[in-house]
Write a structure and sequence with these properties.
The protein folds into two domains: about 270 residues, Endonuclease III, domain 1 (Orthogonal Bundle); about 130 residues, Alpha-Beta Complex (Nucleoside Triphosphate Pyrophosphohydrolase). Helices cover about 40% and strands about 10% of the residues. Strands 1, 2, 3, 4, 5, 6 and 7 form a seven-stranded mixed beta sheet that branches. The chain has about 425 residues and is of the alpha+beta class. Bound molecules: iron/sulfur cluster. The site of iron/sulfur cluster has 14 residues, from helix 10 and helix 13. The site of iron/sulfur cluster (SF4) has 14 residues, from helix 10 and helix 13. Its main location: mitochondrion. This is Adenine DNA glycosylase. InterPro entries: DNA_glycosylase, Endonuclease-III-like_CS2, Endonuclease3_FeS-loop_motif, HhH-GPD_domain, HhH_base_excis_C, HhH_motif, MIG/MutY, MutY_C. Its cofactor is [4Fe-4S] cluster.
């Protein structure tokens, strides 16, 4: 058929799955392996035993949001506590943001919990408590639900035959089909979605998607993949290339052969035989994280039973760590000397408390480094013991005194726990 003018050319055959018999075999091998080896996870149990589709979708949704950027082992405990506290969308919709942040504390990327709760409220108030029933509608109607989460919920909870692409799937597919072009670039991502949709098993789409992700998480891992144990090794072009590759300049069996191929590695970064299958995937170099320094002060007083209490303040409701509690903190200008840092923090505390604070009263304790996704944050920690109570201007940020135990039960970030 003639190509439509302007439509992108189809990728060269070596990067595609076009043989129906091969696709069928790959599905069968992967699902048989999954049935044998899958990890027992609480949301998987619920997705197969729960009869109510809305409850199934809710459980998968919560687990998928938690699993974004967090390891399975960490998520299990958070997921169980969350589902115990808010077993339904309706229960979550009635929770306060403070409660959500408290439960989320330590999981990182706090806006995920907030958005989950906002979306639950929307389902209850605007969709009569009924979750949208297709990947397309989930993505369109629910804030914070992107293409991946929508595909996961729809395939796992409703059995919709739709693929998913996450970091694990990207790695597996790039290796299966020797895709070495920048795997974070939109044209490559689009191709991977096409491939995931072609491959997904029509009768067990949820299991197939989970199997592909599980393969990436446990076998086709980033650094030392276990190719010998891999259930789809006979379909893997990266492995074949590793086993049968010939030194340049003789083209090997799996060379794409198309000059300027949009899915091959760039000509400047050819196959490196030391890397083997880990030649794939390739990503453009990451941007360096922003380096930020913050002075933070642990104000301490003796509580009624002589136990120490600490003053914490709430961060604004938007931006990094929105709505979380922290010790009074001040972002420091680049290259500020230690003496000046101390003075700036004293001025900040004085303005905030309406109480004279001399720089010399602040005792330097040390530094804590915490890496957020895109920020390399150093907290310079000071302490200031107080004799009396501090009455804060009600116009300033909400604040409260907490014991150590209350501090740990509050919605505080992991970084602040390190500071304490
Ligand atoms: Fe990944 Fe190796 Fe399996 Fe290929 S054979 S999919 S590289 S684990």
């Amino acid at each position: 058929a003639a190509l439509l003018a302007g439509a992108p050319a189809p990728p060269p055959a070596p990067h595609l799955f076009s043989d129906p018999a091969e696709i069928e075999a790959l599905r069968g091998n992967l699902l048989a392996w999954y049935d044998r080896c899958k990890r027992d996870l609480p949301w998987r149990t619920l997705a197969t035993t729960e009869l109510d589709a809305d409850r199934r979708a809710y459980a998968v949704w919560v687990s998928e949001i938690m699993l974004q950027q967090t390891q399975v082992a960490t998520v299990i405990d958070y997921y169980n506590r969350w589902m115990q506290k808010w077993p339904t969308l309706q229960a979550l919709a009635q929770a306060s943001l403070e409660e959500v942040n408290e439960l989320w504390a330590g999981l990182g990327y706090y806006s995920r919990g907030k958005r989950l709760q906002e979306a639950a409220r929307k389902v209850v108030s605007e969709l009569a408590g009924r979750m949208p029933r297709t990947a397309e509608d989930l993505q369109k109607l629910l804030p914070g639900v992107g293409r991946y989460t929508a595909g996961a919920i729809a395939s796992i909870s409703y059995g919709q035959a739709t693929g998913v692409v996450d970091g694990n799937v990207i790695r597996v597919l790039c290796r299966l089909r020797c895709i070495g072009a920048d795997s974070s670039s939109p044209p490559v991502i689009d191709r991977l979605w096409d491939m995931a949709n072609t491959l997904v098993d029509r009768s067990r789409p949820g299991d197939f998607n989970q199997a592909l992700m599980e393969l990436g998480a446990t076998v086709c891992v980033p650094k030392a993949p276990l190719c010998g144990e891999c259930p789809v090794k006979q379909h893997c072009r990266a492995r074949r290339r590793k086993l049968f590759g010939k030194p340049d300049p003789v083209p090997d069996v799996e060379d794409c052969g198309v000059g300027g191929c949009p899915l091959c590695p760039p000509a400047t970064e050819p196959w490196d035989s030391n890397l083997g299958v880990t030649n794939f995937p390739r990503k453009a170099a990451k941007k360096q994280p922003r380096v930020v320094k913050t002075a933070t002060c642990v104000l301490e007083r003796r509580g009624c039973h002589g136990a120490p209490e600490y003053l914490i303040v709430q961060r604004p409701n938007s931006g990094l760590l929105a709505g979380l509690w922290e010790f009074p903190s001040l972002l420091l200008a680049q290259g500020l000397q230690e003496e000046k840092q101390q003075e700036a923090l004293a001025d900040h505390l004085q303005a905030w408390m309406g109480w004279p604070v001399a720089a010399g009263d602040l005792q330097l304790i040390g530094e804590v480094v915490h890496i957020f996704s895109h920020i390399h944050q150093t907290y310079v920690i000071y302490s200031l013991p107080l004799d009396g109570d501090v009455t804060l201007d009600p116009a300033s940020s909400p604040s409260r005194w907490v014991t150590e135990e209350e501090f740990h039960a509050s919605a505080v970030s992991t970084a602040m726990k390190k500071v304490l």
